[in-house]
Every structure is written in structure tokens, then in C-alpha cells.
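Rotation project, supervised by the postdoc (A.L.). Task for the rotation student: set up a whole-complex structure prediction and record inputs and outputs verbatim in this book. Inputs entered:
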Amino acid sequence: MDCTKLFRVKPGENIDLDDIDADFKPEGLSRDEAEAEFANLTEKLRDLQHLMYAEDSRSLLIVLQGRDAAGKDGTIRHVFGPMNPQGCRVTSFKVPSKIESAHDFLWRCHIAAPKRGMVRIFNRSHYEDVLVVRVHDLVPKTVWSKRYDHINAFERLLADNGTMILKFYLHIDREEQLERFKKRMDNPKKNWKISDADYSERPYWDAYTKAFEDAISNCSTDDAPWFVIPGNHKWFRNLAIADIVVEAMEGLKMRYPKPSVDMDEIRRMYHEADEAG
Ligand code: ADP
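Outputs recorded:
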């Protein structure tokens, strides 16, 4: 199954989220098979991240967006958790602080962008400024409507500087969200995750749908594609994202750098030292 092809939003495509099945899973693929395949993919991801770190030339930015309980935290834990923390960082974007609000909306994202060799995951992102900000009228339309162009220019700048950008919208439906809220309520280890916003945002479901659709349709580019990932089945969501990231990273054709020393000389010195005891 080619997840990249299946879930990638083509530049200029207008997406309708209500037409996309959040419950999708491939026919004939059992959960056990998917989990075995996922284990292979996370191993590959770990190797590719190691290679990216060693090559120290490109970087990877993953953007995760979705409604409350869509699975952003779970995706980070399961898909990116196996990566070496030395080469992978997560930034979670909350309501902007005083200093963040005193700058342009991209400022806090630009300083969090990955440096060469690194993987950076944005848990929420600059897209909040055309999502929650739009839905709740936090700035006038004349301000947020210009942000799609700003975002495309920003992402092009990062791409031109060697950052590969992959953006994932984790697509769950209303019933699944309610089900997950219930599980949070029933599981004492998950109670802390519940916030007033989980429930107060539900009446804005359709407004968010429209805001997500516009963000994804306006900002899925060759440099920084959006993927709409069916998210009701967590195991399939993880598999699909891992599959897309592996394919994209393999496409970079990264190479380990040549050693900075003369390896024949190093071997000769090793043998001499070995023989001398
Ligand atoms: P999360 O839901 O990501 O686990 P929180 O419960 O702390 O973490 O929620 C973060 C909140 O910050 C969300 O409600 C999100 O919409 C909000 N937020 C993020 N960025 C912005 C922004 N630029 N403007 C306003 N609110 C924002």
C-alpha cells in the first residue's frame, strides 16, 4: 500500500474532510500484520534518523495537527519515540506567551525549526494561527487570511535551506473523539489530559472543519505537503505515518560522510599498536 500516494493532498486540491473516511483501514490487513510491519518501519526510521544526524546536511520537520484527542501525543510516542533523542526534538505550541504574542506569528516557529542533521516535531504549529485564531476571531479576517501566503513563503524558505517538511492532519470523526474523551474520563492515568477546551470546542466542530480544510488546501505544496491520515484506528495511523516518513527520508538518498582520517593509515597504526601489545 502506497500511503504517500493515498493520503497526500496534491497542490491546489480542495479537500472536503467529511468525504474522507476517518475509519479507513486497508482491507485484508490484520492488526497483527500491521504491527509487525510497523516494527520494521520504526527500525528503518531509527537508522534513517541516525544517517541524517551523521550526514549533518539536511533536516526534517514534522508538523502534527488535529482536533483534541486526534492522537498527536500518541503519534509522537509511537512513531518518533524510537528515534535517538540526541537527534530528535519535539516542540509543543500552546497559547502564545507574552513575548511570543509581541512578535509576528511565525517567530516562535522559526526559532524552533530544525538545524542541520536534526528531526524536529511540531506538536501543533504555526497552523494554529489560521485554526483556533480564525475559529475564535482572535484576530480579524484581514489578518489571518494573509497568513496562508506567509506560511507558504516560510515553508519554502525552510525547504530551500535543506529542511524536508511533512505535515500530518490526524483525521478522527465526532464519535471517535467522544469515545476518546470517555476513555480519558474512565482512566485515572488519563484524567490529567482532560481540559475544559475539549468540551467547549465541540460546538465549533464545523468551524474547525472549514478552517482545517482551508489550511490544508491552501498550504499543501511540493515543498511541504499535507497528508490527511485516517486516525480512528491508532495502529493504522501509526503505520501510515511511519510509512510516509520512511519513504520520504529514503528519497533524500543520504550518505554517511567520508571519514576525515585516512582509514588505511588508521588500520596500520592499530595493527602496530596491537602487535606491540
Ligand atoms: P495540547 O492540547 O496540545 O495537548 P493544551 O491542552 O495545553 O495542549 O492546548 C494547547 C492550546 O493552545 C490549544 O487549545 C491550542 O489551540 C492553543 N494554541 C496553540 N497555538 C495557539 C495560538 N497561536 N493562538 C491561540 N491559541 C493557541
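Student's summary: The chain has a mean pLDDT of 96.
Supervisor addendum: Residues 70 and 170 are 6 Å apart (CA to CA).
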